[in-house]
Design a protein that fits this description.
- The complex is a heterodimer of chains A (170) and B (596).
- Chain A has 170 residues and is of the alpha+beta class.
- Chain A folds into two domains: 8-88, Alpha-Beta Plaits (2-Layer Sandwich), CATH 3.30.70; 91-162, Alpha-Beta Plaits (2-Layer Sandwich).
- Chain A has helices spanning 22-32, 62-74, 104-116, 137-147, and strands spanning 8-17, 39-46, 51-60, 78-83, 90-101, 120-124, 128-135, 152-157, 161-164.
- In chain A, strands 5, 6, 7, 8 and 9 form a five-stranded antiparallel sheet that branches. In chain A, strands 2-3-1-4 form a four-stranded antiparallel sheet, with helices on one face.
- Chain B has 596 residues and is α/β, with parallel strands linked by helices.
- Chain B folds into three domains: 2-190, Rossmann fold (3-Layer(aba) Sandwich); 204-371, TPP-binding domain (Rossmann fold); 387-564, Rossmann fold (3-Layer(aba) Sandwich).
- In chain B, strand 4, helix 5 (90-104) and strand 5 form a beta-alpha-beta unit.
- The chains are: A alpha+beta (170), B alpha/beta (596).
- The complex binds thiamine diphosphate and magnesium ion.
- The site of magnesium ion has 8 residues of chain B, from loops.
Chain lengths: 170, 596
């Protein structure tokens, strides 16, 4: 059978038992097998059931993506793996905190642009702002680029959180 | 201890006891009889409980790597999990090679490691190491037990995970304070992992499709592996039946030997880098490759883009991650081998399926043509013992006995694979995936422990055997009459062969310099030393070895420069096999040289 060699970006949701080492297993699998992680986000989502949700953005050929899913599913604490890129349409969001410092003109311009991106100001000093912006990763990329000439100081991003559309659970 | 407590203890579940008592109790409740271990500060409470117990048999090894290989040999020859007990820090790190070996070959092991007390973890305490961190990538799963109330559950889950689905090693790391603490013991009947559920039953539709593909095939071939052995003896029995009803030829990986008998009429010998001509040519030319419990390893496939290009492929595996990993297959079947084989046989019979007899006849004619090459033949000598001849004689002279073979890693291992004929599963123990020199001697200890009256032979190389040589002392202590049959060619033969074929004959550091006198060494250990230097005396010496009920180091001096053929050079395809030294210089691509 012929191989499909296109490299595609995929967002994977992984539901794991929230036990010590679960995240290390997932991350170790990626480094040990030479897969790359473009973004990673993890938090407990059900306290009583002790489950956490890991959202991973990775890229690879369709074969590599299949392997990644199969290898993840093989980890004992992993309950489910879902490829949200195939499970269309999924919703992806990321949140970022962005610190900008600059002169008067730059501050006005930064404020103007932040409104276009629906970013909110969460901290202000005489010479700086911290913006909070949420949306698809590409929107955050664009906002960061827009802030770069206006005195961008620092960026902190949460990584992608994703979920399937519609009423059903994954 | 009061009588009241005694009574409770016999009840099992819900009893109060210390962590170390729980370990002993859990092992017994899991049906464990033998454990392989080495004491140290962080496991002293467990060793103390062991001292007060008189049912479990503890085998004291001489190095923790030996304990793990012994447990592997025990597991592979019995189908039961092997159990290891070692201390923290160096005890745990010494065990890592064996644990990785077991992971690669899917051997069920429960390895219990001591850890420094919970309040010291993270402080670089004496003999502290991050055992769960170090063993995370080389175990199927592992646990650090920080709460005594988790201990019995974790121990039982450890057995469940090690032995079910695709088997593998697990590590339970127990801090010393937890071993002393009292808590509630829960028996295995009350424990099942919350979410882990391997898929065992294959999909019916896939089985039906497999049968249809088999009935339609013109040039079919079974390619089986260690998964059949791991599934249990029933899988081997069903495999034999399936081969008989279909009439298809069958080959197997290194790990799968014995599932189908080497004396069976459809047997082509093993495939892969040092497989037979007929097995590799059949793999290359078949139109249906039925892979059962094998994983398309690089030693088997050779150059991937030239691997069995004209065939449709069925792949049965219990581990879904093996499907399409190296080779894309047409029909995946996920499930336990025995269940899948039983289902295939049922469908084959119910649907009155028939192999294509005419096509099969032509296919066998072609296969027999390849067989006639006699690719395992070698030029024997009257002066020097040829290593192939030594294995042939060992096989002939041990025939009719209950014989188990373990090996080290190198040429001797490949010759053993090619020449020793296994008619039953679980009688062949070798390090396949990791290729661990030093595996065979301790593995033989484990096998002999489980089968006290059997003939257990480690077919060894003089270099490999020095890696775990100290375990001869263990064999002497426990009166385990293992036979260490060293094919002493004074070289790391497999390294020398690659240097000859791929590195212009520059034999960099592959000569076994300053070898010990193995006969004197055996005597120093309190074992028996035997040496054979000529073909004439070989049979007599082998019989002497077989007949003595003590551990033997057999120094079999063989031709130092014999090479192991057939060989598919790395990066080459199956039909580019080298059959002997007389062949032209092998053509190895630059790409091929990069491969191991
Ligand atoms: C622990 C370990 N180190 C290195 C190797 C690489 N290696 C593979 S075979 C071999 C030589 C083995 O020599 P010997 O035991 O004498 O066996 P022979 O090939 O001569 O039969 C070596 C060094 C290995 N497989 N395992
Ligand atoms: Mg040698």
């Amino acid at each position: 059978m012929s191989k499909d060699s296109r490299i595609v970006r995929h967002t994977l949701s992984v539901i794991v038992d929230n036990e010590p080492g679960a995240l290390a297993r997932v991350v170790g699998l990626f480094s040990g097998r030479g897969y790359n992680i473009e973004s990673l986000n993890v938090a407990e989502v059900d306290h009583t059931a002790h489950t956490s949700r890991i959202t991973l953005v990775t890229s690879g050929t369709p074969e590599v993506i299949d392997q990644i899913q199969a290898q993840l599913a093989r980890l004992v604490p992993v309950q489910r793996v879902l490829d949200l890129t195939l499970e269309t349409p999924g919703v992806e969001r990321e949140l970022a905190l962005i610190k900008v410092a600059g002169s008067a003109d730059q501050r006005v311009e930064a404020m103007r642009i932040s409104q276009e991106y629906r970013a909110s100001v969460v901290d202000t000093t005489l010479e700086s702002f911290i913006f909070e912006v949420a949306g698809e990763p590409s929107k955050i990329d664009a906002f960061v680029e827009a802030m770069r000439p206006l005195g961008l100081v620092e960026v902190s991003r949460t990584g992608v959180a994703a979920i399937t559309k519609g009423a059903a659970a994954m | 201890m009061s009588t009241m407590e005694d009574k409770n203890e016999s009840l099992g579940a819900g009893t109060q006891m210390t962590g170390s008592e729980m370990v002993i109790r859990a092992l017994k409740d899991q049906g464990v009889r033998h454990i392989f271990g080495y004491p140290g500060g962080a496991v002293l409470p467990i060793y103390d409980s062991l001292f007060q117990d008189n049912e479990l048999v503890h085998v004291l090894v001489r190095h923790e790597q030996g304990a793990v290989h012994a447990a592997e040999g025990y597991a592979r020859s019995t189908g039961k999990p092997g159990v290891v007990l070692v201390t923290s820090g160096p005890g745990a790190t010494n065990a890592v090679t064996g644990i990785t070996d077991a992971l690669m070959d899917s051997i069920p092991l429960v390895v219990i490691t001591g850890q420094v007390a919970t309040h010291l973890i993270g402080n670089d305490a004496f003999q502290e190491c991050d055992t769960v961190g170090i063993t995370r990538p080389c175990t199927k799963h592992n646990w650090l037990v920080r709460d005594i109330e988790d201990l019995s559950r974790v121990l039982h889950e450890a057995f469940q995970i090690a032995t079910t689905g695709r088997p593998g090693p697990v590590v339970v790391d127990i801090p010393k304070d937890i071993q002393f603490k009292k808590g509630t013991y829960t028996g295995p009947e009350h424990v099942r992992h919350r979410t882990y559920r391997p898929k065992l039953d294959p999909d019916t539709a896939a089985i039906e499709q497999a049968v249809a593909m088999m009935a339609a095939a013109k040039r079919p071939l079974f390619y089986t592996g260690g998964g059949i052995i791991n599934s249990g003896p029933e899988a081997s029995r069903l495999l034999r039946e399936l081969v008989a009803v279909t009439g298809f030829p069958i080959t197997s990986t290194l790990m799968g030997l014995g599932a189908y008998p080497a004396s069976g009429p459809n047997w082509l010998g093993p495939l892969g880098m040092h497989g037979t001509y007929e097995a590799n040519l059949a793999t290359s030319r078949c139109d249906l490759l039925i892979c059962l419990g094998a994983r398309f390893d690089d030693r088997v496939t050779g150059r991937l883009d030239a691997f069995s290009t004209g065939s449709k492929k069925i792949h049965l595996d219990i581990d879904p991650s093996q499907i399409n990993k190296n080779v894309r297959v047409d029909l995946p079947i996920i499930g336990d081998a025995a269940r899948a084989l039983r289902a295939m046989l049922m469908v084959w019979k119910e649907t009155n399926a028939k192999s294509d007899a005419a096509a099969l006849k032509d296919w066998w004619t072609q296969v027999d043509g390849w067989r006639a090459k006699n690719s395992l033949s070698f030029r024997n000598s009257t002066k020097l013992i040829k290593p192939q001849h030594a294995i042939d004689r060992l096989y002939e002279l041990s025939k009719g006995r209950e014989t188990y073979i373990t090996t080290e890693v190198g040429q001797h291992q490949m010759w053993a694979m090619q020449r020793f004929k296994f008619d039953e599963p679980n009688h062949w123990m070798t390090s396949g995936g990791l290729g661990t020199m030093g595996y065979g001697l301790p593995a033989a200890l484990g096998v002999q422990m489980a089968h006290p009256n059997a003939l257990v032979v480690d077919i060894a190389g003089e270099a490999s055997v020095q890696m775990t040589m100290q375990e001869v002392s263990t064999a002497v202590q426990y009166e385990l009459p293992i036979k260490i049959f060293i094919l002493n060619n004074e070289y790391m033969g497999m390294v020398r062969q690659w240097q000859q074929l791929l590195h212009g004959g520059r034999y960099s550091h592959s000569y076994s310099e300053a070898l010990p006198d193995f006969v004197k060494l055996a005597e120093a250990f309190g074992a028996v030393g035997i040496r054979a230097t000529t073909p004439d005396e070989l049979d007599g010496k082998i019989m002497e070895m077989i007949n003595v009920r003590r551990p033997v180091l057999f120094d079999c001096r063989v031709d130092p420069t014999e090479n192991c053929y057939p060989m598919i050079p790395s990066g080459a395809a199956h039909d580019q096999m080298i059959l002997s030294d007389s062949a032209d210089e092998p053509q190895v691509s630059e790409e091929g040289k990069m491969l191991v």
